[in-house]
């Protein structure tokens, strides 16, 4: 009784005062949200509202013409499809490999385990610029430049290291006793992985999926080098092209930006808690 | 269990990583000391790539880019985290909104900011001139002394939310006893920040900063999409120079030589950093 009174009183920590919290939040929200708001407003403005001095804050004649242009008069829909194919395939492949690797790292002791784990980490730290040239040559030799498979392979390897890392810490958190009970019941190693470990680490799986999908969806520089044919170009490349192709048509560029941002933002908002939890777990648990 | 079953599980991932990362890294080394016919040329590619003035300029630009980005990312990220660690109504909403810049694709951030920085029709020039902060519109992306700060500002905007959520997670693991002890000693809020929060989140900041360095060195997207290195090479950072050498000049061997040097410098930074700041290897993630 005495203890609970003590903690309840001490929980009242001195904090920032209300006005500074309020002011801080206003500034933070404005800085983070404004470019997005400006992008959406610009995407529904007509041409002469975009190009006025001084700029017009609110569109007086909101229009969907920019979206019409993006969806029906450009190659953006095709690039959208390409992006989905590449991102889904790369995310799926990376997840399968990461699940097995993380299971190996989390559940077994073997010679050189920490060495191999460190190797995977180095894979995450490699500068893109240092591997882009040989990767291009390798893909060219394999005949994979300008194919879906080329991009899928590259995206798989750039998301794999962190996926393995995140999943390993999730798997480690599952009590060993559950698995030992299953072994006594005669389950195989793979059986345990699929019947016990995976269902229990669903939040971790979701975190990895969201991470890998967002990374591949947003990736720009590899796609720029390895997908120069419009049959395999992804959305980021399409958008970069769009801003030069339609030189000054900022309304259409902003509409295309919206088309690219909205799916990823929705995905993120739905799974935000899993994702942030999975990402921060590794850093704070050490 | 002392067997190799674990290695068998990890093997597919390791093989894939080896083929597509380790092999290219060694191949870069080979390319850097040969010519396009595959003949050994010693250090010729290195001296060829070091000669032009743009290489030194790119190095300085890279330093500015990395240092400027990271300083403000950490500063704003930690500030935002301390703010979001307070209890107030609507905190979850503010936290979600604060993550928006990080979720927006890099290329979208680049086009949107390019539009906002537009000299004539950009909203930024309008806000600054109408409030009297500027006398006349500034060509942010075309003037040689404003273009790099503008790029850094975009990069900071894009990544400080990441610092904020990582630091926030660290702040929330600080044991209550530490605050209580500080309060017994009559600490004010700012003393709590300085003597309890900051020391406790040091490991998180260390790990995050290393990631930010790597990301800044990889961040070609924003600069390339907006300026392609211009005006007058003012925003050429080394990764962009490698990219240009390889895919615009088709000088794969010189690009490889520059990659080798870049790679060596990056690895040195990473090693020195981990030695200097990380108390255990497990902390650097």
What can you see in these coordinates?
The complex is a heterodimer of chains A (286) and B (285). Chain A has two domains: 2-64, no CATH class; 69-285, MetI-like fold. Chain A is built from 14 helices and no strands. Chain A has helices spanning 2-10, 18-43, 47-50, 65-72, 76-107, 113-125, 128-141, 148-172, 176-184, 189-200, 202-218, 221-226, 235-245, 250-285. In chain A, α11 (202-218) packs antiparallel against α14. The relative contact order of chain A is 0.13. The model of chain A is unreliable at 1-11 (pLDDT under 50). With 285 residues, chain B is mostly helical. Chain B has a single domain (52-283), classed as MetI-like fold (Orthogonal Bundle), CATH 1.10.3720. Chain B contains 14 helices and no strands. Residues 280-285 of chain B have low confidence and may be disordered. The chains are: A mainly alpha (286), B mainly alpha (285).
Quaternary form: heterodimer
Topology, number of strands of chain B = 0
Stated plainly, the CATH topology of chain B is called MetI-like fold
Shape category of chain A: globular
Low-confidence stretches of chain A: 1-11
**Rg of chain B from C-alpha positions?**
23 Å
Strand content of chain B: under 5%
Helicity level of chain A: over 70%
- Estimate nothing, just give the exact number of structural domains of chain B: 1
What class would the helix/strand composition of chain A place it in? Answer: mainly alpha
CATH superfamily of the largest domain in chain A: MetI-like
Tell me the number of helical segments of chain B per DSSP (H or I, 4 or more residues long).
14
Helix content of chain B: over 70%
Could you name the CATH homologous superfamily of chain B? MetI-like
Mean pLDDT over the residues of chain B: 86
* Protein chains sharing the most extensive interface: A-B, 101 and 103 residues
Number of domains of chain A: 2
Q: Give average pLDDT of chain A, whole number.
A: 83
Q: What is the CATH class of chain B? A: Mainly Alpha
């Amino acid at each position: 009784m005495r203890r609970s009174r003590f903690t309840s009183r001490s929980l009242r920590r001195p904090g920032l005062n209300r006005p500074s919290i309020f002011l801080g939040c206003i500034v933070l929200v404005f800085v983070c949200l404004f470019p997005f708001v400006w992008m959406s407003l610009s995407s529904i403005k007509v041409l002469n509202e975009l190009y006025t001095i001084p700029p017009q804050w609110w569109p007086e004649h909101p229009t969907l013409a920019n979206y019409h242009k993006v969806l029906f008069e450009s190659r953006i829909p095709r690039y959208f499809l390409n992006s989905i194919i590449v991102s889904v395939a790369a995310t799926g492949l990376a997840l399968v490999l990461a699940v097995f690797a993380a299971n190996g790292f989390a559940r077994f002791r073997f010679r050189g385990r920490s060495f191999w784990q460190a190797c995977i980490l180095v894979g995450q730290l490699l500068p893109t610029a240092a591997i882009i040239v040989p990767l291009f040559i390798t893909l060219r030799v394999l005949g994979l430049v300008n194919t879906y498979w080329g991009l899928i392979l590259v995206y798989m390897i750039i998301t794999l290291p962190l996926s393995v890392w995140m999943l390993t810490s999730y798997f480690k958190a599952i009590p060993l006793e559950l698995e030992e009970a299953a072994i006594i019941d005669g389950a195989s190693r793979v059986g345990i992985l699929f019947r016990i470990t995976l269902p229990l680490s669903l939040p971790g799986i979701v975190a990895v999926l969201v991470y890998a999908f967002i990374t591949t969806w947003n990736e720009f520089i590899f796609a720029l080098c390895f997908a120069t044919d419009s049959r395999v170009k992804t959305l980021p490349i399409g958008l970069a092209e769009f801003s030069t192709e339609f030189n000054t048509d900022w309304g259409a560029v902003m509409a295309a930006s919206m088309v690219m941002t909205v799916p990823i933002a929705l995905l993120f908002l739905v799974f935000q808690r899993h994702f942030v939890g999975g990402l921060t777990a590794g850093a704070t648990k050490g | 269990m002392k067997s190799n079953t674990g290695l068998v599980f990890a093997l597919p991932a390791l093989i894939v990583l080896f083929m597509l990362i380790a092999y290219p890294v060694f191949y870069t080394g080979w390319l850097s000391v040969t010519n396009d016919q595959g003949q050994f040329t010693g250090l010729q590619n290195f001296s060829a790539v070091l000669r032009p003035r743009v290489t030194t300029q790119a190095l300085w630009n890279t330093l500015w880019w990395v240092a400027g980005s990271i300083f403000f990312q950490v500063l704003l990220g930690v500030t935002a985290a301390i703010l979001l660690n307070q209890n107030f109504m609507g905190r979850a909403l503010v936290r979600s909104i604060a993550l928006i810049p990080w979720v927006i694709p890099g290329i979208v951030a680049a086009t949107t900011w390019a539009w906002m920085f537009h000299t004539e029709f950009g909203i930024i020039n309008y806000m600054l001139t109408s409030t009297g902060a500027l006398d006349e519109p500034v060509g942010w992306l075309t003037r040689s002394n404003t273009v790099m700060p503008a790029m850094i500002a975009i990069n900071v905007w894009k990544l400080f939310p990441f610092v904020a959520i990582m630091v926030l997670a660290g702040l929330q693991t600080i044991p209550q006893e530490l605050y209580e002890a500080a309060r017994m000693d009559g600490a004010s809020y700012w003393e709590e920040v300085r003597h309890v929060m900051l020391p406790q989140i040091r490991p998180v900041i260390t790990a995050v900063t290393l990631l930010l360095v790597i990301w800044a060195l990889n961040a070609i997207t924003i600069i390339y999409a907006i300026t392609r290195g211009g005006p007058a090479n003012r925003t050429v950072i080394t990764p962009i120079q490698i990219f240009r050498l390889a895919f615009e000049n088709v000088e794969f061997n010189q690009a490889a030589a520059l990659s080798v040097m870049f790679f060596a410098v990056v690895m040195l930074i990473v090693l020195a950093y981990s030695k200097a700041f990380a108390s255990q290897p497990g902390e650097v993630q």
